[in-house]
Q: What sequence folds into this?
């Protein structure tokens, strides 16, 4: 299943080849996610293709600095993050499914993740 996603103003936009339809998302309680309120689903980085200028991304890192949390400097929305999966060594994208078109947020299974303890 192919999705399109974006920040609010459209300065950051992408397509996502998700394979199957997205049915669940991680709801993380870490110090950033609990403030930001994103719902995340993970994909190989190559599944996400930016359709806007990569230079439009602002990036925030914290704690172990391992994840690049991208956000739009104009509208403030954070449509995805990226990093390396420490187990597989593969580049991954953590997509904020709230930013995807056509997702029924109410129908998603929300999987709690205890990121605060990582
Ligand atoms: Zn924006």
A:
């Amino acid at each position: 299943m192919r999705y399109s996603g974006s920040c609010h103003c459209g300065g950051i936009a992408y397509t996502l080849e998700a394979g199957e339809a997205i049915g669940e998302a991680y709801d993380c309680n870490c110090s950033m996610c609990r403030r930001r309120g994103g719902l995340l689903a993970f994909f190989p980085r190559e599944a996400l293709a930016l359709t806007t200028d990569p230079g439009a991304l602002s990036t925030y890192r914290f704690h172990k600095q391992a994840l690049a949390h991208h956000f739009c400097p104009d509208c403030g929305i954070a449509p995805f993050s990226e990093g390396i999966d420490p187990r597989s060594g593969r580049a991954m994208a953590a997509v904020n499914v709230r930013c995807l078109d056509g997702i029924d947020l109410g129908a998603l299974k929300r999987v709690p993740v205890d990121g605060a303890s990582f």
